[in-house]
Amino acid sequence: MRSLIDILELSVEELDGLMNTADDIMANPAKYSDVCRGKKLATLFFEPSTRTRLSFEAAMYELGGNVLGFSEAASSSASKGESVADTAKVVSCYADIIAMRHPKEGAPYVASINASVPVINAGDGGHNHPTQTLADLETIRHELGRLTDMTVGFCGDLKFGRTVHSLIAALSRYTGIKFVLISPVELRLPDYVRRDILVTNRVPYKETTDLEAVLPELDVLYMTRIQKERFFNEEEYLRLKDSYILTADKMKLAKEKMAVLHPLPRVNEISVAVDKDPRAAYFRQVLYAKYMRMALIMKLLDIAVEIDAKEEA
Amino acid sequence: MKIDSIKDGIVLDHITAGRGMRIYQLLHLEELDCPVAILKNVPSKKMGKKDIIKISDADLHLDFAVIGYVDPEITVNVIREGTCVEKKHVELPEELENVIRCKNPRCITTTEQELPHIFRLADRHDGIYRCIYCDTKASRQL
Ligand SMILES: [Zn+2]
């Protein structure tokens, strides 16, 4: 029995396996529509995240399984003071697998050591959100056909964005990756991420404040939202906010084959006009996320389905 | 001041000067009935000065994880009938339970009081420990 708490618990081989399964589900959904018959997924959401919860629930339904759970702490026994450990033990009696979101860092890990069924971390505060990273990886691989030898740009709030840190960590294990870190000085990638991941793994990177200048180099552009409250002063925010908005005009500078990702929800950092650009991958990313969650649920439930051989291009 | 060398017991030697009292507390030596001596600022060729703790109970079970964490330079000598029968060097333990507390206000240990505070050794060279729940680093400063 295995759980997924942190993306780095999965080897590169296992990641590839999950992506192969996701690709096969996309190509042959009917083959998978019944593989989880009789299985139940419990979605334990101690803080609301409708988007993530719906993705998990849709994933389980498309595998032929069922779903139970709650979507906020107030409707769970946590409001009566039950510990995460006890909740995990109790829910293990009802469900075959658990997806847990919790505002406290480490709560899904506590659940995983107490549950008798696999636990998937569906986000624990600002700490880990491995299924988002699975979706990001699959998006890049599916859109560009590879996860090696490319230049990946991250733009916006690189300081507080956990999805950015996790994706940098996950991509650093592939060969030939270069990072371009685009952000205001106040929202630079934290030193510990730079040191522990980039320097330790000798991954080449450069930092800039200028999106337009580096846009032509990028194979992937990962956009994030810059929250107003992250700035020290209003003036600075007004001065900088437009420079990190991706517009159709700026997209003219980008490579013909590249992919724009965003963990969503978007506010205004990508103008709506970019949506119809074929390089805009952020809504397909939502779809890839569901397929990766399907692949992960199958893996953790030990459900193996033979993958159809891919035709060589 | 003269403290007799002990016949049967445990001597914690080469304690970094000034840390003797902290070790005494962490090992809960105040709970013992047998004689315990803390020697402070003892001249040492190797260290300049050092602290030493002598406990007159050779069969006492000590938490070596705590000792290794607080001061990996310490040597533990077990004395029986006046001779040293065992000399151990402690090292940084792989895991520490309820020795350091996680200081991250967002960590699950802040809301669930019964959870043990567990840290695992992440980097032996630099002596870095991380909370098993939230990955927050603990510095070895005590
Ligand atoms: Zn912690």
Protein described:
The complex is a heterodimer of chains A (313) and B (142). Chain A has 313 residues and is α/β, with parallel strands linked by helices. Chain A has two domains: 7-128 and 289-300, Rossmann fold; 131-286, 3-Layer(aba) Sandwich (Rossmann fold), CATH 3.40.50. Helix content of chain A is 37%, strand content 15%. In chain A, the strands form two sheets. Chain A has a five-stranded parallel β-sheet with strand order 7-6-5-8-9, with helices on one face. In chain A, helix 1 packs across helix 12 and helix 6 (130-144) crosses helix 12. The two termini of chain A are 37 Å apart. By secondary structure, chain B is mainly beta. Chain B has two domains: 9-89, Alpha-Beta Plaits (2-Layer Sandwich), CATH 3.30.70; 95-139, Aspartate carbamoyltransferase regulatory subunit, C-terminal domain (SH3 type barrels), CATH 2.30.30. Chain B is 10% helix and 37% strand. Chain B contains two helices and nine strands, in the order E-H-E-E-H-E-E-E-E-E-E. Chain B has helices spanning 20-26, 64-70, and strands at 9-16, 36-44, 48-55, 75-80, 83-89, 95-97, 118-123, 128-131, 137-138. Chain B has a five-stranded antiparallel β-sheet, with helices on one face. In chain B, strands 6-7-8-9 form a four-stranded antiparallel β-sheet, with helices on one face. The longest helix of chain B is centred in the N-terminal third of the chain and has 7 residues, at 20-26. The two termini of chain B are 29 Å apart. The structure holds zinc ion. The site of zinc ion has 8 residues of chain B, from loops.
Summarize the structure.
With 313 residues, chain A is of the alpha/beta class.
Descriptive key words:
heterodimer; A: 313 residues; alpha/beta; Rossmann fold; 2 domains; five-stranded parallel beta sheet; four-stranded parallel beta sheet; 12 helices; 9 strands; globular; B: 142 residues; mainly beta; Alpha-Beta Plaits; SH3 type barrels; five-stranded antiparallel beta sheet; four-stranded antiparallel beta sheet; 2 helices; elongated; binds zinc ion
